[in-house]
Hints:
Elements: H1 2-29, E1 37-38, E2 41-42, H2 43-69, H3 79-112, H4 117-138, H5 144-149, H6 156-167, H7 170-183, H8 196-218, H9 224-232, H10 236-268, H11 272-322, H12 327-330, H13 332-346, H14 349-370, H15 372-389, H16 398-409, H17 414-431, H18 453-479, H19 481-486, H20 493-511, H21 514-528, H22 539-544, E3 551-553, E4 567-569, H23 571-576, H24 578-582, H25 586-620, H26 627-653, H27 659-683, H28 689-709, H29 712-718, H30 735-752
Antiparallel strand pairs: 1-2, 3-4
Helix pairs in contact: 1-2, 1-8, 2-8, 2-20, 3-25, 4-11, 4-25, 6-11, 6-20, 6-25, 7-21, 7-25, 8-18, 8-20, 9-10, 10-11, 10-25, 10-26, 10-27, 10-28, 11-21, 11-25, 11-26, 13-21, 14-17, 15-16, 18-27, 25-26, 27-28, 27-30, 28-30
Amino acid sequence: MIEAATRRQWSLHAGLLALWFVASFGVVFFARDLQVLVAGWPIGFWFAAQGSVLVFIFVVVYFAWAKNRREEPEPGFNYSGFSARKRRLHWRFAAYTACLLLFLVVLAVAERYGLPKAWVAGLFLSATLILYAVIGVYGRTADASEYYVAARRVPAVYNGMATAADWMSAASFISMAGGLYLQGFSGSGGQPGGLAYILGWTGGFCLVAMLVAPYLRRMNLYTVPDYFAVRFGGNWTRMIAAVAAVLVSFTYVVAQIYGVGLITSRLTGVHFEIGILLGLGGVLVCSFLGGMRAVTWTQAVQYVVIILAFLIPVSWLSYKQLGNPLAPIAYGQQLQKIAVMEDALMHSPVERQVIEEYARRADALDKKLLDVDAALQTERRELRAKLAALGGGEAESDAANALRRELAAVPKDANSAREKWTRAAADYRERARPLGGMPAHDKPFAGDPDGSPSEQKEFQSSRANFLALMFCLMVGTTGLPHLLTRFYTTPTVAEARRSVAWSLVFIGLLYVSAPALAVLVKYEVMAHLVGQPYDSLPHWMAQWARDPTLLSFTDINGDHILQFAELKMGPDLVMLASPEIGGLPYVISVLVAAGGLAAALSTADGLLLTIGNALAHDAYFEGKSSKAQAMRRVMWSKFALLVVALVAAYAAAQRPAGILYLVSASFSLAGAAFVPAMVLGIFWRRTTRAGAVAGMLAGLGVTIYYMVANQAAVRQWLGLSGDGLWWDIQPVSGGVFGVTCGLFATVLVSLLTTPEPPAGHRDDA
């Protein structure tokens, strides 16, 4: 009987994992061959953009239903009281959503009748932040169970909502649609991405549901390092897991605080650094006072803001262009139009003029770099001569003022000139390519498998990088500490399974809409902006162009007409400016900014809580403790959280890298550090403490080495030649090597060492 049940269990896992693999890696590998049009869609693009996501949702929903159907009720659990509590929560959330929509309508009407934009922004931003603060104050606690796991009383649907908000960080809300706009289906070999983010960040939940979440929930833990301590015993596994949790979460949280500063400064008009501090206050109110209890309910209400802020602009753009507000269903029509416009742009004489001018400027900078000192002196001398010809220092004409600005912008020394000119030459060289260096939107992978040897190599590299990035995002999802901790808060194992399913459903609403937004914005740009006179461009472009990292446009060929290659949009702009691109009221722009702020705040809450707990609960305190010691542990967790928040704010203020890159890197680190030892520890009793230690150190070490050693600045400092890549895999996907090394190290060392009797192991979860 037991053997039959075990066989059914493994057949369920094997069947669903096979379906997951085919819907992700199988579809992607053959995406170039799946270009047949079905109902107007290239079938390969449709699967990668949304078809596979629907399959993933089916996998986690069916897994939860099949497992829960056969599971006995948990003894001692008050199911009737729990059902009554859920009904009360449903009414409260329905009322909250209705009030939020009513508030938006009132502000839109007030804006129409003359309420200043500053008041619209101030009222909405203040209302949302006050709501988050009230929940934080109301949820304050010093009880260990409440602080770490919300007393394990959160229903699956609301834990799914909170998980979705925690998950849909600044990268998902702000940067993902922009990344899809710039990278199309797959990006390039040197910059993989595109739909890999959609597939990776949703497909990973299948692994979470079937391999990790229910098993960890059954062990009644507080943190992810708790698992390593309980399963393997000893200090080393817990300490390494705690350090890895801090490293992964810190990398991730810096990106979120960067997003907080970006949006807060946009809403309030304050400097970026002040915006970081203002947003950080909202983060700390919840995570510092109430821990997981306050964070859970804050994230649940933030999800409503996030999803409304994303769906309203994309639905409006879809209705405006296609007459159908259901963007994921309708936007396939625009893909074909974009393909036609891309072909026209690649053969346009005026576009070629712009490209040739970029190439000329890149060549000129390359010549300067041959002798930087002489070029620097020549540039200063020529500018001073031009200024003298206009009347010298006393001249007050626009031309003289422009020359003064150019002279002030000349680098002060050879080192800064070399750095500036090298960066500018690379940018010009990138833009001196068809479509400004952007790939064709619906083309799977760069190069051509049937072309020249160089094109074949480019195709293989592009596909390999796409698969590697997707793998890292999926496996990293399985190991992210702040995500796994969310499933500790449900009252039962069955609710944990349902919670994973609800999480993916809520996340899927945004993830199937992001590719639609990228396509609709690209069509809007190509059809209604490109070809317009510069003096007729919409006002929002001048506003966003104040930050050249978000938007820049220059009349390169001097024809006073905007060409596609003259326009450069940063990935963070596409979502944030979507209401203005679609012509929506300003209150929707404020809603989008508030949605991005909620996404960054919700993820930062969870990450800072994870870091504080790892430092105080896992690295400093060990073993069981009395109630008084547990309260002191909570206080130390709060103190650690505060210190880490300030350090992360300082790091974010330095603008270290793009949001999407930082978040992707943290996934590689999480997958390599945790997943091999964790999953083997759950399913393979032979896994030993020494094997887990070896696996975590090997995985983390290889990933960090690969990422650091392949940074251009590091290679230049060490005097290393070449790119240092293994099989052309980009550094952001270094986790593919780390996970492989971690897996082999765990298995090999476990086989060579004597296993300890595990204190916790896999049950039928």
